[in-house]
Amino acid sequence: MKKVIFVLLLILVIFLLLWPFAWQIITSLKTPGEISSFPVTLLPKRLYFENYAKVFNSGPPFHLYIVNSCIIAGGATLLCIVFGSLCGYALARLKVRGTNYILALFLGVAMFPQVAVLSPLFLILRKIGLLNTHLGLMLVYTAFGLPLSVWLLMNFFKELPNEIEESALIDGCSPLGVLYRIVLPLAGPGIFACAILVFIFCWNEFLFALVFNTSMNMRTVTVGITLFPGLYEIPWGTIFSAATLVTLPLILLILICQRRIISGLTEGGIK
C-alpha cells in the first residue's frame, strides 16, 4: 500500500511539473480561433505549425536573438569555468587563511537580488562603453555565475587525492600544468555539471538582458519573446511557439546529459 501511494504521489508531482510545458506545446499548435475559444479545447483539431513560422517571419529578428543568447551564455559559461577552476583549486589546495570567510563572501554575492545591483552595474557598463555589447552582458553573467562555479569546483578538487598531484610535481610538471593536465580531466563530471548549470542560468536570465542590451539587434531570446505582443491583440500562438523553441533545447540537453549532471553533483559531495 505504501508503494502504491508513493507511485501515485510521484505521478501527481511529475504531472504538475510537466503540465505547464505540455500546455505550452499544445497551445503553440492551435489556431488563433482555438486559443481564444471558450470553453477551452484541450487538444487542437489539427496541427497548426504557422505559429512557428511567424516566430521567424514576423516581428523581431528572433534568429538573431538565438545567436546572441548562444554567444553570451556560452562565453559567460567558459569564463566561469576558467576562473572558477583557478579559484576553486586555490581554495581547495592552498592553505589560505580565512577560506570560510572567502566562501561566505562568494555566496553573499550570489544572494544579492538583481534589482539591488541593477543601477550600479548599468552606470559601470555605460562608463566603460559596454552597453549593448555581448561582452558587457557576458561579464555580468560571469560575476553572478562565479560563486556557484567556485563552490562546486572546490568540492570536486577536494575529493581528488593529493598523491596524484605530488607525483606530477616530482616529475617536473608546473602547478598550472598539474591543474590543466591532471586535475581538470579527473574532475570532468563536476566541470560538466557546473557548466550546464551556469549555461542554463545565463540562457534564462531576463532582467539584465532587458536593461543592458536595449538595441534591437542585441536582444536575447528571453527578451525577444516579450516583443511579440501587437498593438490590438496578443499573438499567444506565436509567443508560446517562441517559448517552446527557447525551452526545448535546454530540456533536450538535460535529458541527454542527465547522467553526467547527476554523477557530477554527487561526486562533489561524497568520496
Task: Provide a brief overview of the structure.
With about 270 residues, the protein is an all-alpha fold. It has helices spanning about 1-30, 30-35, 50-55, 60-95, 100-110, 115-125, 135-160, 160-170, 175-185, 190-205, 205-210, 220-225, 235-265.
What is the CATH topology classification name? MetI-like fold
Q: List the secondary-structure elements in sequence, H or E.
A: HHHHHHHHHHHHH
Structural category = mainly alpha
| Relative helix content | over 70%
Low-confidence stretches: none
Number of strands: 0
- Strand coverage percent: under 5%
Mean pLDDT: 85
- Report the C-alpha radius of gyration, rounded: 23 Å
CA-to-CA gap between the ends? 36 Å
Question: Architecture, CATH level 2?
Answer: Orthogonal Bundle
Question: Which descriptors apply to this entry?
Answer:
mainly alpha, 271 residues, globular, 13 helices
Molecular structure report:
It contains 13 helices and no strands. By secondary structure, the chain is mainly alpha-helical. The chain has one domain (58-267): MetI-like (MetI-like fold), CATH 1.10.3720.10. Helix 1 (2-28) crosses helix 13 (236-267), helix 3 crosses helix 13 (236-267) and helix 4 (62-93) runs parallel beside helix 7 (134-159). The longest helix is centred in the N-terminal third of the chain and has 32 residues, at 62-93. It is globular and about 75 Å long. The protein starts with a helix and ends with a helix.
